[in-house]
Amino acid sequence: MKKLLILPVVLAVAACGADDVQKVDVFGTECDVVATSVNGDSLVKCPVTPELEAIQAMEANSMFVSGDFAEKNITEYAADTEGVWVNLNPNECGDGTRRYRVMLKNPVFDGVAMYAVSQCM
Asked: Who's near 52: CB < 8 A, 6+ residues apart?
């Protein structure tokens, strides 16, 4: 009987210590998955690194997000300058690949401008 009383306490303590944030590798940097769409693409926040800053400085060649995320207010994410935002799209460039859309450092949201650098790997 004592074991049955202790088990819920042990499970509760274990659950409190669990790290619920999913991690993913983006160009050698461990990043947090913030959301996943029904299409399987992910919205990811990465720490600022020289590699990601170099990509952010490139000329934009795509919109940042598609699908479910296009309906969200992406300007709120752009205002968060403590990280680099990436939209991951599995198998979009072929089987076993990912499309990485890295949001520019200072994107302009005017409805027609491209504001991400898209790279396939």
From this structure: 26, 27, 29, 46, 84, 86, 102
